[in-house]
Batch of 4 targets.
Target 1
Amino acid sequence: MMGPPTTFCGNNKCKKIRRPLPPRETWKKKIEFLLAVVGFAVDLGNVWRFPYICYQNGGGAFLIPYVVMLVFGGLPLFYMELALGQFHRCGCLTVWKKICPALKGVGYAICLIDMYMGMYYNTVISWALYYLFSSMRSELPWTSCDNPWNTLNCTPVTNLSALTNVSTSPAKEFFERSVLEQHRADGLDRIGPIKWSLALCLLAVFLLVYFSLWKGVRSTGMAVWVTSLAPYVVLFMLLFQGISLPGAGEGIRYYLTPQWHKLVNTKVWIDAASQVFFSLGPGFGTLLALSSYNKFNNNCYWDAILTSSINFLTSFLAGFVIFTMLGYMAHVQNKSISEVGTEGPGLVFIVYPEAIAMMTGSVMWALIFFLLLITLGLDSTFGGLEAIITGLCDEYPNVLKRHRELFVAGLVAVIYILSLPTTTYGGVYLITLLNVFGPGIAILFVVFVEAAAVCWVYGVDRFANDIEMMIGHRPGMYWRLCWCYISPAFLLIIFVFSILGYKDMMAGGSYVYPDWSINLGWLMTASSISCIPAYFIYKVCKTPGSFMQRIRLAMKPEDPEPDDRGIVAIASTVHGVGGSGGGGGGTHV
């Protein structure tokens, strides 16, 4: 493949030369690609969110709306992104030249969303790293109330006679007053200085990320053998330990007992759709980037089925791990499971450590558990940053692709600096704000535009032709109906309900976010979404001709050129721009 033209001048003459780019890397082994995709999809949300919303929304009955939303909403979008990346062999920016150039703003929106995610997600991993270091002692620091950070209200959870309405557990005080020290901040109005111990943990996380990504799929392929497989070893170890504890059976019953009457509640179906979407992760550019390094004839259809199934089964398995522990805690404290359970960071940084502290060999189990959280988080952050790296390197190959190591170092350094405010005493409030308004709402609209562009502008029949050229058979009516109608509707519904329910997503504790912070959050959401119309207007204004001619030309895919294998994709471009009727056979020349 040839790079963009570069101007060279000498002897009073200037000429443009297109230098050949280095051939595109491919995964050394197919299993490395699968591990990378599974590692990206299986993240902290599988552990701290799925089990909670499962029992909250009907227990075993929740699996029905979850599977329905997976089959008709999440899986088709997951398959679509894997196929797009593999066929066009480029990232989230350059791919739009081959689909609809006027919508290249979708790619810039994805890069910005991934930046926002990188600014807080790695901090959560740094909390787990802090816990890992804190566990390397003879007694876990959240076992007793005899530490400098403890208050007079601290009461060990096993001391049932001393528990009152104002009692707090040692694990809760360790997280809030030792790890975060959020009592030293006044919310977002005065977040306080950087806590340097957390900043150093965050630096260690970014160094791990850099050395896993700097060489491209070669270094990532080696890293995912550890970061993708280790969580399953740890999950099964925790499961076997959990089912041996008293009260574990009651926890499993609470997790799985169907509450059929909840299926008539609309919120249950919306929660299922949201969990499916954010668990599989289409739209973050990661699936495009990872699949772009596949061989052309790789069977991405079975990849999509296999990896999405593993993701679902992992969430289900994590539920057993969590609820055996919750059952044990409820048994020890003589409470109901609903009184000890919670979701989000509180589950994995307060409730679960609390249960571990009451177990025999608590130090060993704490080390194992926080290693699980670190490996789960690292895989997902690999994916988010790889989406930015691949997208920009493919778009600016002469500048960035030839100097990938320096570019990755610069990108990681910038995101680290931007992440430092989340390591302040009030950083936990900033993390919630970034989570909701960074990727939380905007990504839904971005993926809706992406799905609509592929199926309604590029053409679903043309897209089906592309897949047939790769894997030898054409997607059936089910896939095409999902891509054209069901999946876009799935995304639009979640997007609308997310906007209406943003206050629920920010709920947690007694803190009330100031109005200025909510306004800032909506500006963050608008900053990524606005990339789409802004680039569309720029492209139309830049294109010559009348208004309608400009729009048609701006949306017309660019002429293909041979990739590094000398292949030109004919079927994708000979039909011009149009709706789903762009059918017709195609061949590779």
Note: The longest helix spans residues 300-333.
Target 2
Amino acid sequence: MDKVSSECPYPGCFFCVMKEGNPSKRRASVLKFFRELPSQDDDGQVLPISGLWNTAMAHPNDPEFIELGIFECMAALIWKGLKNRRWLSHDQNIYIPYYAAHIIGSYTMNMEEFAESAVHAGVIPPLVELLRGRLTWVEQRVAVRALGHLATYASTFPAVASHGEILELSIQLAMSSLEIVYSHFYQYVDRRLSYHCDLLTRGMGGVEMESRKAEEWASQLQCWSLQLINCFAFKPEFLPTICKPEFLVKLPGMWGGLVNENSPAGVGLLRTICHQKLGRGPVAVCPGIIEALCNIARSSDDWQYMAIDCLLWLLQDPNTCHKVIDKVVPALVDLADITTLGDHKKLGDSIVNALQDCIQSQGSGKSSISSRIKEQIEDLLKSKQKFKWEKNMPKEDLHIKQAAALVVKLEGNSLFSSGNISGAASKYSEALSLCPMRSKKERVVLYSNRAQCYLLLQQPLAAISDATRALCLHRPVNRHAKSLWRRAQAYDMLGLAKESLLDAILFINECSQSNDPDLSLRQNKVPDYAERLVKKQMRAAWLFREAAIKHGGVHSQGDGGDIYGPETDDSEWETASESDIGNDGRDDMGDDDDWNNDDERKDYDKPSLKDIKHGYNVQLAEEEP
């Protein structure tokens, strides 16, 4: 070590210390380094801190630095940056509070004993000051991340909760984070702080990469704030603070965007809230939130099951059932054929049981159900009973029912091709009543066909309902390409950009894997009509859109403005109906079914304009729209 140290111009250099071959001497030197670093004012301090940051990211479970006082050192450095602005502005010290808070978060994300050491080292007060915004949003991001890790553990949560302002600050940050990042960084390229740009891109990118990373970090700032709030939401005493209408109503719209899709974000917090009796009451009466949960439950969102859980708990609670039943039941009926979503098994059975309990509770006088809702539940229960009966039916009888349903379906296809959309929808309804419940592939086709008719009849809610039923019946769940596309268009008609975007992206993914020549992507090219819809919805669901409208980046809801910079071509942003007219990527009808009769397959030519209703160019082939 002496040889290495003599060649280094910096006495006590951390990198030289780490090269010491004697473990005992190295530990003693590292301990000394951590103790002395906060009191030193030498240039180049950011270098060992960035090295520690890399080590913490690569080896977060290594206890050596924890035992030697890294938490005390990092807390002291954050305090120094907060109290000594002259030091903070010198050399590259502006980076140090960020790295210090990040190091604390990395070492506490997996190990509870490390989190306990961090609390004992006094890291919470300086992190709270960063959370307040004493420096910038960049430091807020890593502070809320570290506090979220500390709040995760039972042994350290009380220390976090003892700082009463943390919950309020996190709620405010969750609601304002996107606007903060947009107005303080994204909006004005020439005003961006250089150290922010360096941290975002590691010095490897230009303005475009800075903007993309800013969107990702803004999403993380919001999602990590929600994660911290979620730790408080498990404790009933904090629910009154969390369950304020102005906050609850925003939660369904906090979804992480495409840049942070691994976070359950707002719906994850809603699930925690709805799991508790004290939380369900405020959710049930919050305007718009039940409709939003129903949309998420019907969507192809990765967190669909969380929304379903919320709806089930609200429906099963006698104190909230009557407040939500009219909106919740239609959504759950559409979802009753789901079997599995990821690791969540038998969701459909849970839905059916909950709906059955609704009927029984009405019989006991515990609640009142409208005739319309009662009829929907009873129809579902009859279909489930019908499925059981069919298990004992002779195969010959099932084949007769299948044949009858096929005949009626073909009549519906013929009516559709002749332009009688309403008549076709009625025929598909008749075919569904004849088709055995066990013929799931054929029922997928019929529901999807009828969804297409409802689209053309300008009935998007009915189209969403049928497309959702088709997607629930399909195996794998939520992967029936044409139903995804139809539902994407229906969501577009309702202005639900996020839901439309997710379905459109999944549609493209399914097309890339399909063996159907009408769906498969030719030469790996995304269909023009799908690309246009995705681009449109990406703009409408853009993470910064609300902030950009507020701060003048977007001049109106219908004007793209300069959201995506000067390269944006407004001519591309057509409505879904405009984008479908006159292109080779038309939404054809035609799909595999369970009849396995190739002679019955037939391709129809592209329809003339007389077959196009309200701008949606969709053609009915022999088997499916």
Note: DSSP finds 33 helices and four strands in the chain.
Target 3
Amino acid sequence: MPQSSNIDDTLMRRGMSNLSLSSSKTMSTHSSFQRSSFHITIPAESFSLSMVEESIRNAESIISKWGFDSPSINKVTSLFHCHNREEAKVFLQTVKGLRQSMHLLLSEHSASHKLVTAQNLMQVAMKRLEKELYQILSAYRDQLDPESVSGRLSGGSSNGSSSFEGEDEIVFEEESKISGNRNTKSEKFKGVALSDLKAIVDCMISCGYGEECVKIYKVVRKSVLDEGLYLLEIEQFRSSKIQKKNWEDLECMINNWVHAVNIALKTLFNAEKILSDHVFSASQRIRECCFFEITKEGAMNLLKFPELVAKSKKLPERIFPLMELYEALFDHMPDIELIFSSESTLSVKLQAHSSLVRLGESVRSILSEFESTIHKDSSKTPVRGGGIHPLTRTVMSYISSLADYSTVLSNILTDSPSQCRTQLPESYFDSPTSEDNDLTPAVSLHLAWLILVLLCKVDKKSEIYKDVSLSYLFLVNNLHFIVNKVCSTRLKVLLGQDWVIKHANKVKQYALNYETHAWNKVISTLPVRTSEELSVEVAKSCFQRFNAAFEEAYRKQTSWIVGDRKLRDDLKVSIEKKIVTAYREFYDIYLVKMSGARNLEGLVRICPDDLENYLSDLFHGDSFSSTGSTCPSPR
């Protein structure tokens, strides 16, 4: 079979139409045919002019039958119809023989009038094959669907060989052999169509009609590809249109793109490449250029969409659809590299890489802006009862959602410069312990950084409270919320157990500081346990001071809040251990000794059981207790 470089030369325009029998035009035919044909060296002694002329006469009887000027029904009948398969075989072999005869005439009798006849016959044959090619492509545009093409051809050799093996021996197999083990009639026809396409294309290219062949193929197959993209709802994307879209509509477009890109690449474009490689296996350059011309518009439009979206307004909530776009495109980069692997399709790969880079930049920009938003939060209004600040809820919800995209973020953040941390302790950024060794430290460090920025802001907001104990309760609530959020999400894997333990201990320290400032005055009214007994007067004074201190602390804290039930119960238990236990012991000893004192009820207004009830009503954020009782006042 001729070399690919010789086949490629046949794409040159032939300029051999409307030839006459004049010697000057015969020489023109000679010159043009030399530009578009293969060069075959034939020994002089083996050449017989009469044999060549006889071959041309035989070819004329076969080819003219299928010419468009023929009065027979053949001008509207397909040469490759199932009933004409043997005749199609003869037709292609005749064209091959005609081409060889023309070569022989050129080499020995270039002035022969038979060369003009042969050229005219070749043009008739090519017009018929052009029509046959268009008919098969059109008739089987739905049957030559991507799944059928990829399933039938992807397992074959790289040169796309079909049941028609080689130029010198075109074999039309019976339908049963073509279909192999496939039992359906449809599969049989698809196999025949693929074989016919390759046979026609090989014949046209070898005869110098590759340009006409490629033109017909591109028109039909591009329409098939465009239809497939249309069914996937891939519209023509324009920057101005994308920028004008409201976010809800744009998000729907993003979701559709993420779904469609998988089908478009793995089914539509991949199958189109397989089919082009098969049909145009005779020429690498032709099949690469043909595939690019068919797919470039659709592929460039599909792959520029993420870049256009990345240019839209950068708001914190938009980062998640952007990361989904990034993930989908990143995951399909190997497919893009494989499908568009030729030099002619370089622009498609560059567009895919450009979109990926722009998405990464957009995500990093949003993260930076989000961090800046935390820094800039300047609300001075204290949260009622020292509860959880809205900023804490918002930021932790956002960061925990970011953690769900940790794999995507690792790709985006790994090569980006680290955030400035000069104002915060570097020990905070030690690599967190993680059981997932596949995750890069960049994600963990970045999310830990954002949480630390939040903690610093929370610490600053605690200074708004004039009551020190309430400011510590505020820190308890907010840090406990942050730790719980970490433990209940993927953040725990990213930040590690050491981070959790470290910050859980901080919660305990803040809680201890709260108890100290809130209840030490109450505890200090009770005598320190000693071997010496107190006098009745001293005991009375202790009861009076305890009543006053407890009433003040209780009334102040009835509006304070601890939203987490377990944290609330833990705080109450700790307070009860320190106050109720000491008070019960004091109460049991000195109430008996004071049994004869005047106004005993006024002196001892709270019994230990009542004290437990009062404490149980704390941290619900109500001005009154949940039982409806209030702290007793002096009578």
Note: DSSP finds 24 helices and no strands in the chain.
Target 4
Amino acid sequence: MKKWYGGVLTTSLLMFLVLGYCVMRKPVKESYVTSSVYFNMTNPLEWINAMAPPAAHQPEKITQVISAEIVVSDLFIKRNLSAQEQQSLSTWYQLKRLVTHDQVLPNAIDAVKEASIAWNNLMTAVEREKLDANDSSVKTGKQKQCPHFLSKTNATEIDASGFKLRFPCGLTQGSSITIIGIPNGLLGNFRIDLTGEPLPGEPDPPVILHYNVRLHGDKITEDPVIVQNTWTIAHDWGEEERCPLPSDEKSKKVDELEQCNDMVGNVMATRHVIATNKSSLAQDGSKSRKYFPFKQGYLSVATLRVGSEGIQMTVDGKHITSFAFRETLEPWLVSEVRISGDIKLISVVTSGLPTSEDSDHISDLEALKAAPLPPRKRLDLFVGVFSTANNFKRRMAVRRTWMQYDAVRSGQVAVRFFVGLHKNQMVNEELWNEARTYMDIQLMPFVDYYSLIAWKTIAICVFGTDVVSAKFVMKTDDDAFVRVDEILSSMQRINVTRGLLYGLINSDSHPHRSPDSKWFISPEEWPEETYPPWAHGPGYVVSSDIAKTISSKQRKGRLKMFKLEDVAMGIWISEMNKKGLEVKYEKEERIFNEGCRDGYVIAHYQGPREMLCLWQKIEEKKRALCCGE
């Protein structure tokens, strides 16, 4: 009887191991078990026994589509806000018709629906803060909600079968996640998932990056492979990207780095094998050795870093993969990293997280606040700056640099940041406090998505003509250094007050027809083979009559929507030209779309450190010199 019982136990154990082996070898379009465990949203460090992203759901369980009018109503209810707080909403109510009726652009309905939820939560928190401030029994104090750095060491002391690290305020360009661990267990397969926040009524969060390491291959290959993908409740799994690449697939570049390093999966030369850390070698019998960045039983140091176009992975100092951001799945949406599978975690460290400065410790605070708008005086220039909610550092860099030009401080030029709401309440609360402190932020009644940036362009035109009266209206980005003095000098030199588009003009461009392109445009969106002349997005200026027409047309619902905002401006101006407006296209070669060159008027893709360096050179050398290495 004991022998029979032991045999049954042995057989059951073997069946369990075989079943586990089959599950781990499934391809990426696998089902996921959702955890019913509740996670404390206030604690960024939490361990779970989770098996990664969500299972597919039946269509009837997806949140019901509701009328845009109903969704929008909460956004435009009059709130009990002070005059100072209302200043951040100068364009908010003027965009009501736009966000209610424009459902042409991708993600428009979702962006407004998510904004309605975020706005209600934010206003509830603001009201609670005011009540607490009036209640002497409640101790109030400003608490830092967005840390720059998070870490968890000695991970093996806790349950290493699953890990979850929350990012209270998302990720931004330059953020990194370093994972130190040893693939172990039966197969050594593991996965890393960067996930966002689920919407109310949706049990599972979107997966911005699914990074699946399969040391023993899958149904497609027996060799080790890395599979990258995304998941959303609306669209299920996307198209997977594999490394090594399939033989019939060409490698793409993301942030000038290969989608898959061609070393991966290739046989290494003998001398290279000797020089390479043995943790990066996967042996194929005794005949050859193929390079693979992870190996069962050996320590690996893997770092995911957020770039401008996608997410890069380096392992033990070598670039391995790049993964381009997909539409609506952008880094600011990431709220946590989940690690699960056969890996013994040693530590997880994140750095470069978006964080705001504590105004109580800023000595030059008054000099950083926006200058009051001069009453009944026409501005020479209004500058609208595109920014994302958790780009706190970029906005501070702009305030400390080119917003310190005399023309800006005197009120001759006004500058405002145009920022959509965030799905994360902590970010929105930090943003609200920042707006109240510096008085230079215009909140938008929608959640930021790249496909909706044309709405911000419209908002800039509304502010520059209806909120203030400016001779010229400019659009730029929060990673662009703008020489305000040179812009004003150029406007005087050109001496054109009507029908002006000034910038890096592109007069011969074609729509990107490849679905893989960030700027993909279908024939339905734009049937013609070429675009009308347009100016590149890092910075361009239009005369007030053009901005006024755009503001008026959007109010009447007569503005053609197009998701590429700089091209959209060109399309709108072309339509005005057809109706009799004489247009002056003034090309400025000193606007650099990528990087910096000495003598620049606008330098793009400048991080906070580069911005401060450029300003220091202007102050010390009185010349527009770039910051060399």
Note: The domain at 150-266+292-351 is CATH 2.60.120.200 (Jelly Rolls).
